[in-house]
Batch of 3 targets.
Target 1
Amino acid sequence: MTAAPPELRPLGQRELRRAFGAFPTGVTALAALGDDGTPVGLAASSFTSVSLDPPLVSVCVAHTSTTWPLLRDRARLGVSVLGAHQAEACRRLAARGGNRFAGLDWTATTDGAVLIDGASARFDCSVERLVRAGDHDIVLLRVHELDADHAIAPLVFHASRFHRLATPDNPTETPT
Ligand SMILES: Cc1cc2nc3c(=O)[nH]c(=O)nc-3n(C[C@H](O)[C@H](O)[C@H](O)COP(=O)(O)O)c2cc1C
């Protein structure tokens, strides 16, 4: 233990974003078919595994999201853990304008969950519960079906940048 107190910063939006960004995450695509049969979705790095029994995961969605109201009442939502090769797709899935699914290969389940082809893991989910939490909703999702391929390296998001994991085959971590 040191005698001097830690030099912590006062709380502010910028400092909070910066500190939250120190925690590395993967990135998921949260997506479903809209009423017109076209895919609707957004990128979300707030994905967390929650429970094995029952099988639950969560994402946090900002109240400012214009896409979430189109997703929240769908029977099923797809959650795809994006691969390291999908950084550009991730940028598009978060973009304000344009077709977010342009150039992206995806598959819809019969119940309308949209899953991204070539993702590291894919979950077919339904909304279990919503919890209001500050300026976000915590969305608790029940997993119905899934697949995962550990051979597909995940996309990593840290400090506002995309990265890929260093592996014995690829020892240098490289921003994507
Ligand atoms: C890497 C990355 C991670 C993101 N994670 C989240 C998230 O966890 N929750 C969220 O509400 N928005 C997140 N976003 C923002 C959304 O993808 C999207 O840009 C935002 O919802 C605005 O679009 P919308 O109005 O169509 O919803 C993230 C964006 C990026 C690029």
Target 2
Amino acid sequence: MVNEFEIKKQICDIGKRIYNRGMVANNDGNISVKISDNEFLCTPTGVSKGFMTPEFICKVDRDGKVLQANAGFKPSSEIKMHMRVYKERPDVKSVVHAHPMYATAFAIAGIPLTQPIMPEAVIALGCVPIAKYGTPSTNEIPDAVSEYVQYFDAVLLENHGALTFSDSLLSAYNKMESVEFYAQLLYLSRQLGGPKELSDSQVQRLYEIRRQFGMTGKHPANLCPNNKEGKPSCHNCGGSCASKGGCASGASEELVKNITAKVIKELGL
Ligand SMILES: [Zn+2]
């Protein structure tokens, strides 16, 4: 039995972390958690996510219709993009949306996060594509996000912000933190003359390590068709391979097994 009150408290705590790290301004951002197939807890519109208490949190059904909300609170109009992610990714239990400064700057400049510059970002995220611009509260954003939702756990929203999702609230939040840290490092290293990128083989090794860890979620390491041909993954296809229609099928298990065996041997594990 899910303890709803406990989850509401956790949502408030994550809201504080998002606000305190400057990942949102004003009343921006929203958080949701799936508690059953047709019940989702979500943050209300029009309040700072840094100062919420459990009674602020609303409950909606899978269509985003209000099941429960205290007087004065209603779900964010951006809940539509959360519901689309839940609908299309049954493994997802939580969705976080924010406007972190550096990640959003990249989303505004139209630059996806595709340069492999540090092991943690490659393992946790792979690369982060940009879903094309949509007017908030319409179906344009859910439609744009839908294009990437089967292939990634984090997407930038063009001229808007970032969206992350995972199998727990903490993990969805952590992905948002990772996206922002990656974007910040990429921005700063560009000011210092440009990053020295990890080599293709270094990226491949990190992808193999990710597979060995059995990490949950979707990641180009598991999906990019380039892998099937033994070529470097999405870091080399601009983070947009999903839209090129190539990523629909995962790399064959046989191939993954073979590469894993090779890497384990090479690493002397
Ligand atoms: Zn937003």
Target 3
Amino acid sequence: MTGEIAHADRAHALLSASASSRWLTCTPSARLEDQFEETTSFFAEEGTLAHEIAELKLRKHFTEPMAKATFTRRLNKLKKKTYNDELLFQKEMLKHTDTYLDYVKGIAIGLSTEPYVAIEKRIDYSSFAPEGFGTVDCLLIAGETLYVTDFKYGKGVPVSAEDNSQMKLYALGAYLEYSFLYPIKNVHLAIIQPRLDNESEFTLTIEELLAWGESIKPKADKAFKGEGEFVPGEHCKFCKAKAKCRARADQFTALEDFKQMKPPLISDEEVGGILEKGQHIESWVKALKDYALKESLKGKEIPGWKAVEGRGSRVYKNQDAAFDELQNRGIDEAVLYERVPLTVPKLEKELGKKQFRDYMEEPGHVLKSAGKPTLAPASDKRKAITNEVDAAEDFN
Ligand code: SF4
């Protein structure tokens, strides 16, 4: 493939910071992904809306003081956004965006000088990765420190700021833009993911950041040209090519390693090896199904498969009117509604952490049971457990 740019006016850089963990590992992935159209989903649009609300709050506080009425009008406009006619706004967005705002306010309050603040700032890191640019949620510069903070609304997996390539690319871009004006010597990276209670921070010196920037240049050049080896792994999860990528398919279907198995029973080493190879099969098969359904609905034939109508569900046309009618006909209200106690996590969400601790945990109303044993890769941070009784317990 050539290094030409497919879409000079693309909204996202080919070597985007958010996909950097992917193209730094699987260098041809960026060009391969470029063949797929941008898609969106309810969750992606929900995340965008949460960012817009967060941006409005940060601007109001730091850079664009506004009357309460103006803020409310702008917020109300955002609240009306929909995706496929479904409202995207939920009340919890206000709480979660406040968590992010409070975090940034906390940094600013702890500083001895008033910081420079930039919100939703477009930065350019093309000196390190060809044509690389992106948008940083929040930048603060005070004294000799550059603070880069990223708000993540997802609640899939907690994202760590430690050595995070996306954050480091943002920091490189910010450094290039501001180092003429500010004597930046240290960099503070933070990811705020309120729906997972995740606040992850990482600091490094500007020398360390620049050395990292230099170290990725050869890979970034390869990635821009679409060169190098396809390397499947955890990072395939958000790759646009995840369903059709041959390297990924080969990873799951090539069983050469196991052809030497001698029946009738496989060894524990082979069990470990197969589990290792197969741990992402489920999400790969799901990606294949999503792709095949989408193509079938477009009228394309995927041999052996077709799109059909799923099982519909029955819903009330107007629940209030329906229930009024039932009650008018003598059906007791108790028949119509279930009283279900809130689960512990839901109750904690309702009460808030402090009240939950005071009313529930401290008086001893909440028991924590051990989780059900589950299989995890050896790299998992949790301690390994067994059912074996150790010598000390046995003696007792
Ligand atoms: S699916 Fe995985 S292996 Fe294939 S291009 Fe994407 S990141 Fe690389």
